[in-house]
Amino acid sequence: MKRALKIILPLMIVGFAWMLYDGIMAPERFKKERELREAEVIQRLKDIRSAQHAFKRVHQRYVASFDTLIAFVLNDSLTFERAIGSDDDSLAVAQGKVTREKFKVAVKDTAFVVVNSKEKALRERKLSVEEIENLRYIPFSGNTEFILDAGYLTTESQVVIPVFEAKAPYITFLDTIKYRQDVINLLDDRKRTDRYKGIKVGSMTEATNDAGNWE
What we know:
The longest helix is centred in the N-terminal third of the chain and has 58 residues, at 2-59. Helix content is 46%, strand content 22%. It is built from 7 helices and 7 strands; from the N terminus they run ααβαβαββαββααβ. By secondary structure, it is α+β, with helices and mostly antiparallel strands.
């Protein structure tokens, strides 16, 4: 018996120590995993927002169908205008030597931009055809689609504006098996503070200038 205890007791101590360590580290592991997954979901929502803005530029409204939005990005174009001559040359402008011409660029080649936070500059973000076709899917969700809606909203000043909303509930892209209690705690916190239980961009109920709830 004593010999057995000498073997079993150290193993029990190690086991309890590991359980204690694992319990302490679990929230930190969940935080890192959540941040990693949220980053990918947010980037895709930004791309959806860019696509919606391009669609609105052509059609003066947003769209609630991913089929329509994706087809637009892949097949349509945006019209731009450029000056022939210099607008800074007042004499040339006065003499009518500065003219303007319109030209078109494929949506997929111009719609997606990112902001350099240090330089506050825009640069193009190139998406492949596959990435554009996958805009509808929430990362880490097993091909669950974002919840997409669009329509019109009347502001307090009685101005009617087009709006859209795209969202991904936390339960679709967080590991609800491995981190079950952590996810439950997160959802409870969101409910208690009356915030959406996930990541979203835009709003169907208020004018947010198409901001994301992470911004």
